């Protein structure tokens, strides 16, 4: 299945009681889409001895990319912090759960896609990354990333990583936010800084470090 279809499957598992942090759930989706995605449907299983983190479809040239230096990693993580990326995204043990997790982003997005997302973000977010704003029966406003919904309930993960479920019948308001809150970095980052950041993000194949 596609990544979006695998994400829907995992969301349904969460709705049925599966436990896990946002990072863990994203890693599950990444693993399933990388190894059992439509692009790999005709591929045979990985040969014995193949590393678990390298999908069979990854070209050898991509695996042999020049490792980043400590200075390059430090600069990129500083750019991420200075530009407020962690107010929506999560990297390692820091940040929010509202947006897509950056751990493993290099396995899910090409350098070209990352560059475009940073410089010219789409006006709308993908369905699996949409947030929801609701007002509970006692008047409390809750915002989080939408995991699953049906005619009776809504499941989401809030910015702190807590999985929450609400009965629709007890909600005063329920709104799905489809607009992309991510600002463009075109006026914030130099061309060199943008290239350095994209190279760092591309190196994140899972686990939060290149």
Architecture overview:
- It is a single chain.
- The chain is α+β, with helices and mostly antiparallel strands.
- The chain starts with a helix and ends in a 7-residue tail after the last helix.
- It has a domain at 131-177: Roll (SH3 type barrels).
- It is built from seven helices and seven strands.
- The relative contact order is 0.17.
Describe the structure using short key phrases:
34% helix, alpha+beta, SH3 type barrels, 7 strands, two-stranded antiparallel ribbon, 210 residues, five-stranded antiparallel β-sheet
- Which class of secondary structure composition applies to the elements? alpha+beta
Please estimate the helix content.
25-40%
**CATH architecture name of the domain at 131-177:** Roll
Largest sheet: 5 strands, antiparallel
CATH topology of the domain at 131-177: SH3 type barrels
User: What is the strand arrangement across the widest sheet?
Assistant: 6-5-4-3-7
Number of DSSP helices? 7
Total beta-strand segments: 7
Distance between the first and last residues' Cα: 27 Å
Helix/strand order: HHHHEEHHEEEEEH
Poorly predicted tracts of residues: 42-64
Shape: globular
What portion of residues belong to β-strands? Answer: 15-25%
Average pLDDT rating: 82
What top-tier CATH class of the domain at 131-177 fits best?
A: Mainly Beta
Radius of gyration, taken over Cα atoms and rounded to an integer in Å: 18 Å
């Amino acid at each position: 299945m596609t990544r979006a279809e695998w994400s829907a499957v995992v969301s349904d598992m969460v709705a049925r009681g599966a436990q896990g942090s946002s990072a863990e759930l994203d890693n599950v989706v990444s693993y399933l889409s990388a190894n059992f995605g439509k692009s790999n449907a005709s591929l045979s299983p990985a040969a014995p001895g193949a590393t678990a983190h390298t999908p069979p479809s990854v070209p050898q040239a991509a695996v042999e990319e020049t490792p980043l230096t400590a200075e390059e990693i430090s600069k990129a993580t500083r750019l991420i912090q200075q530009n407020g990326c962690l107010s929506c995204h999560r990297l390692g043990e820091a940040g929010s759960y509202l947006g897509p997790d950056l751990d493993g982003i290099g396995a899910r997005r090409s350098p070209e896609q990352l560059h475009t997302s940073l410089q010219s973000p789409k006006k709308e977010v993908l369905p699996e990354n949409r947030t929801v704003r609701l007002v509970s029966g006692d008047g409390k406003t809750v915002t989080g990333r939408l995991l699953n919904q049906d005619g009776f309930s809504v499941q989401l993960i809030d910015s702190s990583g807590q999985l929450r479920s609400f009965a629709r019948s007890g909600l005063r308001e329920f709104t799905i936010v489809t607009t992309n809150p991510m600002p463009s970095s075109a006026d914030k980052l130099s061309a060199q800084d943008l290239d350095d950041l994209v190279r760092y993000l591309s190196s994140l194949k899972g686990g939060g470090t290149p």
